[in-house]
Amino acid sequence: MKYILYALAGLMVFVSCGEGQGQKANEPGALVMETTPKGVLESENKKIAIYDFDGLSELLERKDEKVYVVNFWATWCKPCVEELPFFEKLNDKYAGKNVEVVLVSLDFPSRAEELLLSFVEKKNIKSDVLLLDDPKQNTWIPKVDPKWSGAIPATLIFNKDRKVFYEKSFNFDELETELLSFIN
Amino acid sequence: MLIGVLLMTSVRGVYAQDTGGYEVGDLATDFKLQSTDGSVVSLADYDDVRGYLVIFTCNSCPYAVAYEDRIIALDKEFKEKGVPVIAINPNNPKVQPKDSFEEMKKRAAEKGFTFPYLLDAGQKIFPQYGATRTPHCFLLEKTDKGNVVRYNGAIDDNYQDASAVETTYVANAIEAMLAGEAIKVENTKAIGCSIKI
Fold first, then answer.
1. Which of A39, A154, B1, B170 would staple A72 via disulfide (CB 3.0–4.6 Å)?
2. A179, A157 contact by CB (below 8 A)
């Protein structure tokens, strides 16, 4: 199974690079990661790349023209699931406006195919979804933000000039207000 | 002035993690909380202990569930050495019905918890400790001055797989405390479920 994942991962990188060139950069689902995932979960309509923190950090360190809204969540986290529609709405409303919404799942990797992939498919999640599979949490949590206790939901909004971390739940208005402070 | 106060309030709201709760070296409060076995438990009830491993945990969080067996093992190992586990469910059962007192009783019986499993009724205790998630551990040392926080954080460094753990943070901290040595890692972070208020 592992070998299939790696083979798929290699293939996905190839395919997603190809797609990336053809797609408008701001289209939802157009996130192109520079690092190679350690695996990929895939169903007919959805694919979720799996990264360890080293792989993910490329995204968190980007300094380009976009605003990144990175939400840490899991299907088992009730308040996370409750606020997910607001991130989806934000992703939809600001598609094509240099805003990238990325949902970083902290689901258990052993159950991600069963729980995460099916959730993303059932809810037809349009934002990019990645799975962070890295048990060394005490090492990577402070790298996301020194203030983060590790509780989720948690969200990072950043552009090349500024980075703000939120350990809280959002409603849509609050989320949009925070985003606009990066755009204006 | 009023604006200043309002501003402070909102900043505290967002960054409550930084401003509330115990740091290593602080004295921890005692409590009187109902346990699933029908008793009412306080730290002061324990005679002949060196300290306490207070763990905020619950039924409903998969991370907490993943650690249940390890919490039982910690209690079995360290109770004899004078550091019993005391588990406290900090969640509001109205927000998370799986964490009701009745459900706690069921879970404690199913898993055969060897330690008291208390409900933080009214949610007055977890904010004083500064627990932010489940599971979240506080190791207390019983001293003449009171119960001193010696360690704050995660149980170990691998929630996914107990057999792949490399550093048993809390066990290391307890062993150092019992040996009268400095605790090398006093604060750790881990992913967990936010506390339901």
1. A154
2. yes
How far does the CA of residue A99 sit from the closest CA of chain B (Å)? Answer: 24
Taking alpha carbons only, the member of B151, B180, B161, B174 closest to residue B24 is: B151
Question: In this structure, are residues B122 and B89 in contact, taking their beta carbons and an 8 Å threshold?
Answer: no
Closest chain A residue to B19 measured between Cα atoms?
Answer: A147
In the chain, the amino acid numbered A16 is S
Q: A136 vs B157: CB contact, 8 Å cut-off? A: yes
* Residue spans per domain, chain B: 26-194
Dihedral sign, Cα of residue B23, residue B25, residue B27, residue B31: positive
ipTM comes to 0.82
Q: Which CATH architecture has domain B26-194?
A: 3-Layer(aba) Sandwich (3.40)
For domain A2-183, give the fold. Glutaredoxin (3.40.30)
Which helix (H) or strand (E) segment is B65 a member of? helix B62-66
The amino acid at A156: L
Residue of B99, B84, B82, B18 lying closest to B54 (CA atoms): B84
Residue-wise pLDDT tens digits, A128-168: 999 999 999 999 999 999 999 999 999 999 999 999 999 99
Cα separation of A156 and A162, whole Å? 11
Residues 6+ apart with CB under 8 A from B96: A78, B58, B60, B196
Q: End-to-end CA distance of chain B, in Å? A: 30
Rounded to whole angstroms, the Cα distance separating B102 from A110 reads: 30
Distance CA B22, CA A40 (A): 41
- CA-derived radius of gyration, chain B: 17
Is A177 in CB contact (< 8 Å) with chain B? no
pLDDT digits (tens, 9 = 90+) for B96-132: 999 999 999 999 999 999 999 999 999 999 999 999 9
Contact A138 B154 (CB under 8 A): yes
Pairing state of beta strands B192-194 and B133-134? antiparallel
